[in-house]
Each structure stands twice: as C-alpha cells, then as structure tokens.
Amino acid sequence: MAKKAKASVEKIVKKVNKEFEKTSSQIEGLVSDAMKQLDTLQHQVQDPIRKLLKEVDELREREMKRFNDEFERRLDEFHELQTNILERLGVASKEDIRKAEKESKKDSNKAKTAKASTSAQKPAAKKATPKKAPAKKPAAKKAPAKAPAAKTPKPVDKSDLTLVKGVGPATAKKMKEAGITSIDQIANPSTADQEKLNAFSNIKGFDQISAEAKKIN
C-alpha cells in the first residue's frame, strides 16, 4: 500500500515538473517575443525622430544662410544710403577731397609765383635809371615761376569705382568681384560688361551710373 502511494506521489511530482518546464518554456517564448516587439517598436519610434532631427538641422542651416544673405544685403543698402545722404548734406566725397587738394596745390603754386615775382621786381627797381625804361628782365624771370602751375594733375585712379556717384564701397567690392574693375567699363560698357552691370540695377541712380562715370576724366 505504501509502495503504491509512493509511486503515485512520484508520478504526480514528475507531472508537475513537466508542466512547470512546459510553462517556463512558454513564458520564455513570450518574453522573447515581447523583447523583439519592443526592439521593433523602438526602431519605429527612433527612425522618425532621427529623420525629424535631421530635417530640423537642415531647416536651421537654410534659415541661417538666408538670414546672413539678407543681413549682408541690408547692410550694403545701408552703406549706399549713408553715402547718398552724406553727399546730399554736402559732406565731401573722395572725389571732392581730391579736387580740393588739387585746388589747394594750384593756389599754393600761384602764391609762390606771386611771391617770386615780387622778390624779382625789387632788385629791378633799384637798378632802374632815369634814362631807360624799367627793364623787362624781371618779367622774363616769371616764366620759370609759372612752371609749377602748369603741371598736369595726377591721372584719376580708374580702378577706384567709388569715384562714380552712387557707387558705395560695398557695391564697388561686389562689382570688382563680378569683373567690373575699371570706371571705363561703367562709362562705356561692352555687351559682357553691361550684363554684369545689370546685376546691380537695384542700386539707387543705376540709370545714371554710366553718365556719372563719363564725367570722370
């Protein structure tokens, strides 16, 4: 009787152990499937996020580039406007300063000439005699004194595009980068030069820029 009871207990234990192993295997399978599904879900969530972050970075770079371009354009317009305002207020431009310097040199040369003439006439007055008319030698000496006033002015720097009215420093820099390096190209542009100049049609007074360039000798 005891043996039968013992055999029955062992049989029950084996059956329980078998069921436990089966259940454990099923649980492990479920856990493995759940982990796979979790990995798949994680990839499905992370991929759109990565794509979104990439698009945000690209958008930020485009906006920063657009902002910088707009800022430079506005800055150029400000410089040109500032130059035009200063010219209208009577503030001397580079061309005016150079003309003033030339006039100052001419006045200085005239003063030197007048001084030399005065000093040359004083000895002549002392040497004059009652019988003879005043000698004309001092007048002959005036010729060398006038030589400085006859000097030709320095040629205009045709590479300085800012001498053209309406062309500011920023615009001049962009024109040189585009291939317009001389005032002559603005005054008498070729077909190729005219196409390059058309890129600056938005500057104030563009329709008169060629005429202004022709005024510069």
Question: How is this structure best summarized?
Answer:
By secondary structure, this protein is mostly helical.
Overview of this structure, please?
The protein is an all-alpha fold and about 220 residues long. The protein folds into three domains: about 1-50; about 95-145, no CATH class; about 155-215. It contains seven helices and no strands. Helix 2 packs antiparallel against helix 3 (about 135-145). It is rod-shaped, with a radius of gyration of 48 Å. The model is unreliable at about 120-130 (pLDDT under 50).
Q: Round the Cα radius of gyration to an integer and report it.
A: 48 Å
User: How confident overall, as mean pLDDT?
Assistant: 76
Q: What is the overall shape?
A: rod-shaped
- Total separate domains: 3
Low-confidence stretches: 122-128
Task: Indicate the structural class.
Answer: mainly alpha
> Largest sheet, if any?
none
Number of helical regions: 7
Provide the β-strand percentage band: under 5%
Number of strands: 0
Q: Features of this protein?
A:
mainly alpha; 217 residues; 3 domains
Topology (SSEs and partners):
Blueprint: H1 2-88, H2 94-127, H3 137-146, H4 169-178, H5 183-187, H6 191-198, H7 209-214
Helix pairs in contact: 2-3
